[in-house]
Every structure is written in C-alpha cells, then in structure tokens.
Write a structure and sequence with these properties.
The structure is a homotetramer. Chain A has helices at 6-12, 28-38, 54-63, 75-84, 101-109, 125-138, 152-162, 195-198, 202-219, 312-315, 327-347, 353-356, 362-380; strands at 16-22, 43-49, 91-95, 114-117, 142-144, 169-177, 223-231, 242-249, 254-260, 270-276, 279-284, 290-295, 300-304, 386-387. The first copy, chain A, is of the alpha/beta class. Chain A folds into 2 domains: 6-147, NAD(P)-binding Rossmann-like Domain (Rossmann fold); 149-320 and 361-380, Dihydrodipicolinate Reductase, domain 2 (2-Layer Sandwich). The radius of gyration of chain A is 21 Å and the shape is globular. Chain A binds chain C through residues 297-304, 307-309, and chain C through 297-304, 307-309.
Chain lengths: 399, 399, 399, 399
C-alpha cells in the first residue's frame, strides 16, 4: 500500500505551495488538477493566474480560498511577485493551451520555481527542444501530466514488460479515439479544434499524445519512423479529426497509434494492447483497475489493483485494497504525489531522482513532439515512412 | 457537473474544521476518510485522537500536520478541550470499532459538534435507538458513512426507481460477500471477527449493513420481516461468517440479502439487482461507473456516469466527464461534500435539509440495526419469519 | 478435441433411429432437440407423434422427411407399431408437457425402447419414484435433457471440484431467473403457467430444476433440507412466479436456489457460483465458453473451452478450437452424443456405463422432484426447514 | 425465428446431396463443415475425396457412413464418376488448401455441380478472376464460406448500416489477429505457413481475408487503395506473420485492417468497429450474440440475438430465443441453409437470388484477392498507397 511520504512531509514541515496558471472555473482540466493535488494532502494552493478574464480569474481563485494579494491575471506578474515573497510558491501548474506553455514555463523556471505542465508539451518540436534545454540548464523538476501513467495497472504493465514476462515485444497498439460531436450552431472553441494551437495536426497533441506516451512508457521503446494518414471528416473543422499512424519502434517492433475525434459513441477511448513473443497485455482506461495478461497457451490472468502479486511500482501507487476502484483522480494524484516527494527531497538535499523515474518528464514531451512533427511530414508526403528528428544531446534517456 | 459549492464556501469564509477519533496510521478506513475529505477542498483536519496507542496517535496526527496541542489520546479529553477553543472543530469523524460509537458520538454531540460516523451505527439496536434520540434532541447533523451510496450511478438507480421507470418493485437482491481468508497462525484482530464488537452476528454489521443499506436507499423500501440462516464455516472463528437473509419488504416485494466472509476469491463483493414490473437495474461496486437498465422486451441500456440523460442527483455527484472513472474515493467524497454543505448552510442559517436528503443518516443506521437484531433472533429460532422492531417516534422517515 | 465415436458408429453400422413424441412445429424445445441430435450425425429421425393436433403432427413430421407410415398422432399407437417393425426406433424423445412423461415413458420402455426425456421428470415425486423403478426393472438407458450440463465448461467445473481445487465446498448459489412478461390480453398457454402441469410450484419444474440440477451436478452434493419462500406477483397467474429456496447440503454446505418468472429484463438467467475453502467458480449460461476460477489471494483465471489445461471431461465435449463459441445447441448435442454412444455400446455388448457418467439420468430427475416436493411443503409451513423425502433403494448413486 | 425452409424441402422431396473434397479426419475445418451442414437437416453427405492419403480418405468417409463406391482419393475421378450417376451430388464442398481451389472448382463446375468453397478463394488474383468468369459462364451457385457473416448480429450490423442508423461511415476497423505460437521442434505444416499456398502474404488469405470480408459485408463499401506494412517476426517462418493495412474506401471512409499470427495470447481475434457520423457499432467474434450500438450522446445499447427489435435479416438467421447462445457452428450453418434453399429453389425453377443476397459469393472472393494483391505490392514499395486492380466486367456488384 501507498506510503504517504509521511517522513518527507514531516521533515519538510509544510505542504508544497503551488500556484496555478490557467485552469480556472470554466476549465475541465483545472478541476481535475485540483482534485488530484488535494488527494494526498501534500499541496496548498496559494496563488493563481487562473484566467485571462479578470472576473473568472478572481472567482476561480476565491473558490480555492486564495488570498487577495496572490490572485493574478498575468502570469508574468505572478512569476515576478511570487519570486519576491518569502512564502513564494514552490511550483507552478501550467494548464493553459499549449501555445503558451513555453512562455509560461520559461517565466517561472527562471525564478527557480519547479514545473507541472499539461500535455502536449508545446506548440511544436522546436519549442519543445528549447524548453528542454532551459529545464536542463535551470535544473528544474518537470512533470508533464500524462495522467494515465499514474494508474497502478499501467505501472504494473511497465514492470511486467521490464521483467521480461512478455519476451521480446513485437506488436504495439495504442489509441485514444474520442467521439467529439460537431454542433455547427455552437462550435467548440477549445484549442483542440483550433489550428492556432499547434497546426492542423493538433489532435495528435490533444489525444494522440496520450496514446503515444502510454505505449512508450510501458514498453520503454521509442518510435523511429512513422507513416501517417490524417483526415478531416467534419467539414466545419479547420484541423484533422482523425489520424492513423503506423509506426516502427527501435529494436524492430511494429505498431499502430490512433488518435481521433470522430469515434462517435466512445466515452473516452484510451487503450493499449502489447504483444510480445511470450504473452500479451491489454488495458482499457475505462476499466483501469484491471490489466489482462495472456501468456501463450495459458488462461488469461485478470490482474487487478491491490493484489499481492503486483510489482513494487504498482503497490506504491495504491491506496485502497483491491475491489475499491481508485479511478482517474487518484491516478492523477500519483503523479502529484511523486512530484511532491521529489521536490521536497531535492530541497532537503536528499536523493530525489527515484521519485521521478515513474512519472512523465520533459524528455517524454520532446519525444511525443518529435512523433507529431514526423507524422505531419509523413502525411504531407502521402504516408511515406518518415524518421523522427532527434536532438540527442538534449534528450537524457529515461533512467 | 458537480457544483463545488463555491458560494457556500465563500460565505462561510473558511473550510470545515474536523477532528478524527480513531482512523490512525494502522487503519485502512482512516486513510479512506482522509482522501475523501480532502478531494473537494472543503475540510481542514485540525485535531485528532486517532489511536488509543499514544505513539500511533502522535505519528498519525503529525502525518496530517496537526498542531501538537490538538493531538489527543482520549476522545473525552478531546471533546472537552476542543469545545473550549475559539477555533474549535465543527465536526468529528468517528472511525473506531462500533462498540465505541455511542460513547464517542455522545461526548461530542453534547458539545455542539456535528457527527460523521462509520458504520455499523452501534453495538446493538438499543444503543442505536438511544443515539437516535440524542441526535434528535441535540439537533445535530449526522452522517453515517455508507460510502457506496455516494456513487453517482447508485444515486441514479434511486432516481430511476423513484421516477417509476421500473414499475412496482418485486424482487430485491443485495449482497456484500467478501472472501476473508483465515490464517490460523496470524488471526485477524479486526473487530469484524470479534464477538465483543456486536455479538455473533457482527458480520451483518460489517458487510451485511452495506447490502441492506444500499437496497433500502435505492428502493426506498423498508424490510418488515426476515428469515435468517447464519453459519460459521471457519472453525477458528467466534462469530458467524455467512448470513443468508430472505426478506419481505413493505408493500409486498421479496428479496434476499447475503453477507459473507467466506466468498473466497472475491475482491469486494457488493452488488444489487432490483427487479420491477417494467424493468430491472443491476450494479456491481467493482464497476461503479455503469448501471444496467433492462426494460422488459428491450435491449439493455448501459447507463454511465457523466451522461447527459442522467438525473439531477447523479449529475450533482459527478466531477469529470464520462469515461474518466471517479472511483470509490470520490463516491465517499460526495458524502463529505454534502455533509459540509449542510453544515455550512445550517450555521449560516440557510436551508440545509436538501443537502442531507441524498446521504445516509442516523435513521438509516437504526433501520439496519433493527434488521440485524431481527435476523439474529430469526436464526436462533431456526429461520422463522421475524418482524423488525421499530420505535416509530424515534424514526423520522427519510424525506 | 471431441472424438466422434467413429469406431462405435462403424461397428454399429448405422445411425441411431429415433422417434419423437411432442416437439412439433409449434414447439421451441422440439426445434432444439432436432438441431442437437443432428449435430454429430449419430441419429436418424424416422418416426414421430409430434403433436396431438393431426395437422401439426403431419406437417412437423414431413418437415423431417419422415415416411408417411411412421407419422402418428397417438403415442400408444406409435409404441405399438414401432415395436412391431424390424427397423423399429431405438430410442424415443419425449418432449411433451411433464404430466405426460410418465405415461409416454412407460409405454415405450415396455417395448424395449430407450428414453430421452425433457425435464422436469414428471408431474410429482410419486410418479418420479415409480418411473425410476420401471427404468431400473426394464434396464433402460434414460437421458434427462438438462441440456446445460452438456457445456464443456460446466463439465470442467465438475472436474475441478472433484479434483479438490476448491477445497471443501461452503456456499452454493444457483439460479435460473427468467423474465416472462405477462400479457393479460394474450395469456401464455404454456404448461409453465398452468397449475395442471405440476401444481402451484410448477416454476420449480420449469426453471428451478435447471438451477438445482446444475449445482448438484458440479458439486456432487445433494440437498438435505430446504426453506422456501414462494410468491405470485402477477395477479393473472394461477401459479407461483418466484421461488427463493435456502438449502442445506449434505456435508454442511449452505446455498440458495432462485427460480423466477419475474426477473424482468433477463434474457435467460441461469448461473452458478460455488465457493470452497480454497477458491470459487463462477459461470453464466449466456457466456458459456468461460469459467472463472478465483483462488484465494490469486488473480482470477479465465478458463475457456478448448484450452489445453482443461480436464478430459471438458476436452471430450469440445469440437472446435478455443475462441469459436460452440453455444447451446452443441452443449445439448453433447448429451445426445453420449447417449448415442451408450446405446450403441450396450447393444454391441460393450461396456457403456462410462458414457452415462457425465449426463443427467433418472436419478437426477428423482432428486429434483424430491426438492420440489419439500420446497412446496416448506412454503406451506411458512418457510420451515423441511427435509427431502428419499427412497434410497430406488436411487442408485451417481457413480 | 428461423423458418426451416420446410416448404422448399418438401417440394424438393429430399435433402441436398453433397460431396466433400478435402476436409478429412485430420482437418479442423472439415469437422466444422460437417457440423454446420448437419444442423438444419438439409444435406446428406454421400461422396467424398476427403484426403490425398487413401487411408485418411477411407476412414474419413466411413465415419460419415459414405458408401464404399463413393469414396474417392482423386477429385477428378470423383467429378467424373459422380456426374455419371443418377443420384449424383448436387454440390461439392471444397476444403483443400487454396492453391487447389481453382482446379477443383473447375472440375465440378463443368459437370453442373454447385460449389461451396473455403476461403481464401484462390492462390492469386488472376486465378480468382478466371474462376469468377467460369462461375458466371456456367451459371453456378457459389458459396464462399466466410462463416462469420452467418452470425445473426453481423447481419444485424449490416442491416443497421444499410438503414442509415450510423449515418455516413467514416472509420472502419477490422482485425483477425491470432496467436499461433511457433514450435521450432514441431513446425506447423498447415498451408497458412507455406509460401507455396499463396506467396509470402498468405496470412492475408488465412486471417486477413476474414477481417476484410466482414467489414466489406456490413458496410457495403469497397476498398480503393491500401498502404501495407508487413513483417516476419518469427525467424522460422517463410511467410509474413503480421500485416498492418491502412485503407481508403470508396466514398471517403478510412480504415485499418490487421491480420496477424503473432497476437500471442489471443484465442481467436476477429472483431470490427464501425464509426459513422451518427453512431458506432462494435462486435467481437468471441461474444457473437452481442452487437453494441452507440449513438452519439446516448447510452450504449446492447443488442442481442433473438430480440424483437432486430432486422428481418437477423431474425431469419435465428433459431433459439435470446440468451441461448447459438455460436459458431450455427452461424456457419446459416450459410449452408441459405445455399441449400437457393439450390433447391433454382432447381425447382423458383426465384432463388434472394437466398444468395446475404451470403458471401465469388465476387466477394475476387474482391479480397484484389486487396491482397494490392497490399503485397504496396508493401514491396515501402507502404506506398496502391490502388486495387478491378476487372469490372467480371465483378457483378452485390445486389
């Protein structure tokens, strides 16, 4: 069961002070971050520039009982003023649209504030690489909130593959196919439908990035080449709303990634299936407590959160006994919990890297941006196999 | 989507201050309460007598960053001292074994502190009735944490039945059949296995109470008579470890309740099936996001949390969009959220009863204690049909 | 994989000749018997008194290409004439309502014709016992078509329990709860709703018998005492439409059997759950290819038809590789196949008893009739525990 | 419910006489054909060249009680001799490896014998086109046994899409990913692993053909272009063992087809998901009784075989009431049943085309061979988009 990091918290003597940029009252993802960061009692929300709309910014901050003098409408002002306070924030949560991530992250990073950033990492690969360099230079802790990797059974999948239980990985299937229905009378203004956010391939940032990250996370394999077929089905849309990617992984595995807005009828749509020489794993985000392990010639095993037979990584991500579904918010909370421990440990001059091993960081974000970049180029060339651009110096391998 | 009670919190100006009795570091249920009460940011844990063991009490409280002067080892001292403070606790959470509930609840109630109490309500029916009278006399808000009724889809089931979608209810099946394996070398000291907690029928308090409460909650029907067959399968046990109850409900419905410790292999084991003249509902706690509605002669409908077609009660209990499983902690959090709103509203002299309508209270606890009392008597008489003892004056109907 | 009994068929030199009594064109169960007996190519349908209505009898027989001179409307005439032929039928299929089973079976048995009989065995326990005596005296092979025991995974459940995989059996749950909707304008004339068929408890013959037989079959345990609560919910009905039975098995296991017509929304409704000291089994007829085995403290195993790890009994009942669902008709066909092999072997003076070991016989029918008899008496006495009447001489144990 | 074609059978006066080529005792698919053709009592197996091995041929035929003088070892001799008999076979079942299909079919077709042929249609596209021309010229009835289209819920899917319930189709996902484990000590000699059967892309004939046919069947859409990525993972194999196809359909839909031998752990692996503007359908062969219909913004509907709300096509393919799983053999039997009716009707000079509308014919086979041909070419060109070769004159559209 989850150790609540009691000793670290006691040593640190207080909760992590956090400020929010974006994620105001009208934001779905903002609500989610708040629930996730509260769950384990490791954070205090003390500052926020939660909207560019001053009224929304104020109302959102008041709802969190943030003091008047720490409610901001401009993230640069917030970075400046917070840096000047004795009780300054330790970390900032960036929940704005992706085209602002680079600027916001840069502003706080320079003040020595650690970073929790929504996916996709940035507007494009170039920004991602520059942000990576800055993070390395400033030696900041960086959490990219690919929340689904906080699920214990996703971590179990990663541990099982690392243990060799599946043998050499051959086929890798990941998808996040959503069903966003177009209402022409009431067009969705979300950045996911705007070319301005990250070009015509923005759906790869919004949904495709989760599919890519989760399979990379659990297999530890990186995509080398991609062949893409991207389509816009809904005439009203200025961006692609379906992307089929066929991919070649390092070491020879083959796979497919599917990101879609037109999977009508789907509630969520994230899943993976990994096939190795000796067995396979299947996981569906909508039943996150269960991981199916099917070994060649054996009955399927229904592995579930809380079981004694699971890996330390899964056990450490678990709060309740089996059969009490922990759900999405607590998966998300696992990322926040690991980040808080790393932050406290680092500031206490204790070893902290191990807390970061299981959570997505800046290099994962760069990796996905490289895939998106290559996929858009492949699609422009009629699906030709296209290699991902890597900037190896800036990409420290995940330990 | 869930309204975060922003206006009430702003008006109240601070979070609800809460103290804990029991639920220390070695307690599974204590951890759960903490996660649940944190989720919506409506509570501050400021005091605690979390264990009778001073070391555990201290360590548990420190882990919550409770101030030294509010860490107690005796709940009576805690009630006394807290009552004397200006920043006294608003509510106490009682997470001790059931035989202490009456005493703890009484001590705090007399000081004007509202009550959040674990199930089963008390040691026996007599205590339950006396506690009920005290709660009425002191006019206290009382939450009995039958946490599973906090699930949106359980609330949807209740709303569907109230709407007449199932027609007249005929058959009611509820069960919580757990698989606690006996380890003779290492006997479980949990109160659930101790006759001292509430007699040989303690499993009806531990597991049976959830099965009874959930079907009562969703159907609004009370059990009138019970025929019980209780057994001890594991020789090492001093209490029954299996209880089959056949029950007759007011209005003519028939049903069965099953509470068990010997359902080996089960992870959790709570479910209900309700059959009416026009259709049926099925829900399994381990897949809590889904409620199956099967109308006569029609395909089954898979209703899920977050859908537009759901009742206001379900919608108000929902934080995230469909397909992002909220899980057990957020179901539990719904009880805490409703309780906090009722408490704030009452203290602000606003209408508050509506916040209590959807959460289990003292009368639900008395009702279940009456069932347990009758079931034990029936079993002693070879399964003879036995009427429940009601003390109608003390039992205000659920509005 | 299933051995098609090739050698026996070759030795016998022809298919088994079979005649039908009842089961005409307007009969659901008749169609099922025909598909089941055809599947393995071991039967020729050559005679029939398929309805008391001459037109239906003729049309039904012609549809099976039965010769004109072997189409009958009276089963006694059929027994007489068939017995006089050189190419006489080897076996008769009795698919009439239950109150005729005794008479029809007696008529053919006396002519040396073997018997395939629909459930429930007879109108009442007395008839069942007398029929049993006749079958023993005439030394006839008798198949009672409790078709669900032909499923490979039901046979696997039996083999697993016999192997001790579950340890001592403690709780036994069986149910067949159907949802037959009442249409007052168009009442169902099926015998299942007629008191004349077997009294007010006829639903125990129609649906309850399957629930009882299947759990007896797989556990090998017989019910000793029953406590019954039977109800008529639909006013239009002259019989009970819901029966809750709590039962005590020999050796100490406890269980519940549920037979219902009012489980509105159910498609079929047969399932069992068996809990032993070491593990449990769950099977649902509507997903018949899968048997869930859950051992204490271990992940659930999804056992499926066709797997290499299954018992000889399951393997011998299997035609196709895993993942090609065999379904209900081939389960039924397994009973027909075993019966045909027994019949051929017996007539070839070969050992034949082993073919009968896995299929329901006359003693199973007597056993269920004893349960029904005791359940009705218990219900009449307000649910008092009532012992089953056994006539041990007439009840040879299943080997 | 299924009408058993009683009148046609009575008019025809006898069952369809059928001969088998291939499919002997050592053949899995042979056993399946036998069960399928027996189920509805419309066929008599009277002749066979069931193996090239004389002993296997003889034993296989004897097991079916075929007369000595109609047991053959050479299909040409069989065609010759059968054609000369008065009681000649009406139809031949071709269950040999694909490279023999053309020759066998030609031999019998010329004698006026109708054809039931296993998939894939032929060794290559050229053969397929020539066979198509021969079938048209000889005016023969031709059933290609893509057995999965016999499932009632697959036919329901087709009817739903034809009715417009999904709106314009956008994404089409079909797969048959099997997990055939390589045993180097005991290599599988099945044609599915032999380059000689149909080249290195033989897996597209063995498994890919089912995925392609089923989505074509239900959507009525033909593939125009394909981009293929084919791989050999198991070094021991002389053929590809994984094929990822991205496809463009006529009218703008996009899709993916996956055929694999390396989906380790899968029992079977056939499924489809079809997404239209208004809703989606999901079906998995291993739970064939259920078709999920998810309309935009509505709860998922669980449609099941036997429901009153289904289309005439599904109803006509159904034998038993809902909840009695019909399974694979009866799906297969639906093809046999429709073929028999067409054959009888045609020979009775009655309209017969409607019986063929729902079953796969020669043009379906040509269509899949064109896909395979283009996929192999695309793969050879590094996944370039490759148009399918059509020979429109020879390809009468499915009416």
């Amino acid at each position: 069961m989850k150790r609540m990091s009691i000793d670290l918290l006691s040593q640190f003597g207080r909760r992590v002070r956090v400020g929010l940029v974006g994620g105001g009252k009208d934001s779905v993802i903002g609500r989610t971050h708040l629930v996730a960061m509260r769950a384990d009692g490791l954070y205090d929300v003390v500052a926020g520039a939660m909207s560019v709309d001053p009224e929304v910014a104020r109302a959102s901050a008041q709802a969190e009982l943030i003091d008047e003098d720490r409610i901001y409408t401009d993230f640069r002002v917030m970075a400046e003023r917070e840096a000047a306070r004795e009780d300054r924030i330790d970390a900032v949560v960036i929940a704005t649209p992706p085209q602002l991530h680079f600027e916001v992250a840069s502003a706080f990073m320079e003040k020595g504030i650690d970073l929790i950033c929504e996916k996709p990492l940035t507007r494009d690969l170039g920004e991602a690489q520059r942000l990576n360099e800055l993070v390395q230079r400033h030696d900041r802790i960086f959490l990219l909130t690919h929340c689904y990797t906080g699920y214990p059974m996703v971590r179990e999948a990663r541990a099982l593959i690392a243990s060799g239980a599946l043998g050499k990985i051959q086929c890798i299937e990941g998808e996040l196919c959503a069903g966003f229905v177009v209402d022409p009378q009431n067009p969705d203004r979300h950045w996911r439908f705007r070319e301005s956010a990250m070009g015509k391939g923005v759906l790869l940032g919004e949904v495709g990035s989760h599919a890519h990250h989760i399979v990379s996370y659990i297999t530890g394999l990186r995509v080398e080449e991609v062949s893409a077929e991207m389509t816009t089905f809904a005439e009203e849309r200025e961006v692609y709303d379906n992307a089929y990617l066929t991919v070649r992984f390092e070491g020879g595995a083959r796979g497919r990634l599917w990101g879609s807005y037109v999977a009508v009828g789907n509630d969520h749509g994230l899943s993976f299936r990994i096939f190795g020489e000796k067995g396979s794993l299947t996981w569906v985000q909508e039943e996150p407590e269960v991981l199916w392990f099917k070994a060649a010639g054996k009955p399927a095993l229904r592995l579930a959160r809380g079981y004694n037979c699971l890996s330390p990584a899964a056990a450490a991500s678990t709060r309740f006994t089996a059969g009490h579904p922990e759900g999405y918010a607590l998966a998300f909370a696992n990322l926040y919990s690991d980040f808080a421990k790393a932050l406290m440990a680092k500031r206490l001059d204790l070893p902290y890297q191990s807390y970061l091993d299981g959570i997505p960081g800046i290099s994962d974000g760069v990796d996905t941006m490289a895939l998106i970049d290559a996929a858009v180029r492949s699609n422009d060339k009629g699906g030709a196999w296209t290699a991902l651009t890597r900037q190896e110096i800036g990409l420290p391998g995940r330990s």
